[in-house]
Structures are given as C-alpha cells and as structure tokens.
Amino acid sequence: MKISVVTPVFDETDSVVETCRGLKELFGSELLEILIVISPRSSPASFAACLNQSRQAPKIVKVVLQKGPRGIGTPYREGISYARGTHILCIDSDGEMELASAGKMRDLMRARPELVLAVAARWAPGGGFTGYDKVKLPLNWGYQQLFRWA
C-alpha cells in the first residue's frame, strides 16, 4: 500500500509542521506523499511553513496552490486529482484531528483493500469531539447541517 495524504491549508503554520511530522512517523514507508493544497488567500507565514515542509522532504511533501473557488471541498478535489498513491487519505491540517485516527483509517484500508479513499468526519457515526469549546460545538454542528443541506 502506498498512501497519498491530501490536506488543505488555509492559514495554518505550526499545525502543518506537526501534521507532516506525525504522518511521516505514523506511516513510514507506506507514505508516498503529502499533498498540501494551500489557499491563495493564506498568510505569508502559512505559505512559508508549507514550503519549508516541502524543502525538508521534497520527495514526500508537495505544495499545490488551490486554483478553484473557495470552500473546503475544492482543495480536497484538487489534491485527489494529483494523488499518485494506491490509497488516499483526506485529513485537515489544523490539528483538530488526532493523528491516531489517520492510523485507524490506514488500518481499515489495509483490512479492506477495496477502500481506496478515507475521509475523516467528526459528525459521522464513530466520530466525535473531546475538549471542544462549548460555544464552538453547536456552531460547528449547525454549520455542518447547513453545508449538508446546501
């Protein structure tokens, strides 16, 4: 199995570094590439953090500038179109997802090789939150419902 990880970046810095480091440690030789799809509206610091990750591991970390319209779906679609792995994992780069979840997703793809795409979702059965801000939680849920409706 060769895994391509697609991760959109809007304005993250430290979390991108931690995500890349953690994925390399977690997947080892199974990791073919990390495709960072960065928004053209990102801050200079965010661009620098992403490019630095690519410079440190040029064979693994690729930075792609998002071309399509705003929204979270666009960078995932664009990243998937560049992916070369046998399996694709889509995760956020903002540090909200525990990387252990990425390991569980990989394990599921190992057990069921026909599953070539795995996407993390907080609101799906088996998903969840720990330590999430009490105000943000209902706002996040409401946003997800609106997004599903649209």
The share of residues in extended strands comes to 15-25%
Order of helices and strands: EHEHEHEHEH
- Quick one: biggest sheet? 5 strands, parallel
Q: List the uncertain runs.
A: none
Name the helicity range: 40-55%
Radius of gyration: 15 Å
Overall structural class, as computed from helix and strand content, comes to: alpha/beta
Number of DSSP helices?
A: 5
Instruction: For the record, give the distance between the C-alpha atoms at the N and C termini, rounded to a whole number.
Output: 35 Å
Shape descriptor: globular
Q: What integer is the average pLDDT? A: 85
Q: Tally of extended strands?
A: 5
Q: Strands across the major sheet, in which order? A: 3-2-1-4-5
What attributes does this structure have?
43% helix; alpha/beta; 5-stranded parallel beta sheet; 5 strands; 150 residues; globular
Description:
The chain has 150 residues and is α/β, with parallel strands linked by helices. It has 5 helices and 5 strands, in the order βαβαβαβαβα. The chain has a 5-stranded parallel sheet, with helices on both faces. The longest helix is centred in the first third of the chain and has 14 residues, at 14-27. The protein is globular, with a radius of gyration of 15 Å. The chain starts with a strand and ends with a helix. The mean pLDDT is 85.
